Amino acid sequence: MQLSGPLGSLPLPSFIEKRFFSSTMRERSLNIDNINPHIKEAKYAVRGELAIKSEQYRAQLAKGEGEDLPFDSVISANIGNPQQLDQKPITFFRQVASILENPGLLENEEVLESSFGYKSDVFERARKLLKDVKSVGAYSQSQGAPGIRQSVANFIERRDGYPADPASIYLSAGASSGVNTLMNIICATPQTGVLVPIPQYPLYTATLSVLNAKCVPYYLHEESNWSTDVDGMREALKKAQKEGIDVRAVVVINPGNPTGGSLAPEGINGVLELAAEEKLVCIADEVYQTNVFQGEFHSFKKGLRDLQKSDKNKDGKFDNVELASLHSISKGMVGECGHRGGYYEMIGFDPEVTAQIYKFVSIMLCPPVVGQCFVEMMVNPPAEGDPSYPLYRKEYDGIFKGLQERATALYEAFKEMDGVSCQSPQGSMYLFPTITLPPKAIEAAKKAGKSPDEFYCLELLDKTGICIVPGSGFGQKEGTLHFRTTFLAPGTEWVGRITKFHQGFMEEYR
Description:
7-stranded mixed beta sheet; 510 residues; 3 domains; alpha/beta; Aspartate Aminotransferase, domain 2; 45% helix; 18 helices; single chain
């Protein structure tokens, strides 16, 4: 840089030039070109452009400025956020939580019972949890409160028929925090790879982008209810290894997000056999384990323990399989997303690696203590014979029935829609139908600079107020188009909005 004057053009000293640019050209330290490039590469479609636009519409309606909009409410079917869509909290959980936040209420048990319907077991549970954590305003152990981890271990043993060690259980700020921890430990270099199902919940690809590691996609089999194709996983693994990628782990989401598919024991065993043969960490995302509408939930933990006891393990093939299973209070019938609670159980990990995981979680001090308490109530709810059980059972079953009915209504609507095909709802909170759009719609999307599925979803939002997510946000096979919708919104009126819009859209672009 030079300045002109009586002595001609003279170069500025570098320190003056730097100060000049700092005070004029660069007003801030950070700009879009100098921040972490891996953050910019990460994509998270469920809270992307469509979600932002839907919130703008919601704010517009709240201000009474929606006269020009063709809808009078916004339906956020883009994210599994049950209580935003009017799912009521479980009474027992919230009553206990109220005492945890204000222990002085224990001095007024009679008033709480006579005026607010609290039962004796609510007070008992609150006292137990306060004994475990002392105060929800205090830090717990980094791994989570020992008494709560013991409750989780008891739950896992009841569920699977095999013992669980509380020392192997880590409480977390939702399952996503557990995923982040595990990925940070696994992803050592830019050439570290993780097998991820496609379609997938974008937490996995986004986290791998941030960590500058490699996503190794394997495709689920849509025609057989989005089942896991182990041969396809093996092909993806071998291809990645030939490209110099060090594949360390395999992710399975069961029941599936965004697909809603639910794995049978045979499918689980196939994945575990691959993990044993190829020395892969198996990450089992099981946060929808209570949302199963067809058949039963089968855990990876039970699958692994069964294999370890079977004839297939005579040579110790499965003895050292590393399995991390995750669960959360955000889903299921609990739906306490905002309280950020979850856990993961680790099996077969090297003790020195486990020590590093403990160190990593210690950096964040501890997961939210109220969230830990909700985890304890999720895994240890009122049992038959307890005073709070009848209401708990009624609320739990009502939520489950409502989810199943809305899933069925949405599925039946999709079956009648031109150019839409959908697998029957097996589990989780989502449907992931295939859509076949007319050439004119694809051309219109191209002109708008959008992918065809994104164009469709934006049109749906603009004309109905319903926010869903294009399949491209989760990954999909080349040449196919999908969208993901939850079925959490109450009632079925909004389903009619979708069918009416779809008919008009197809007629417009046919």
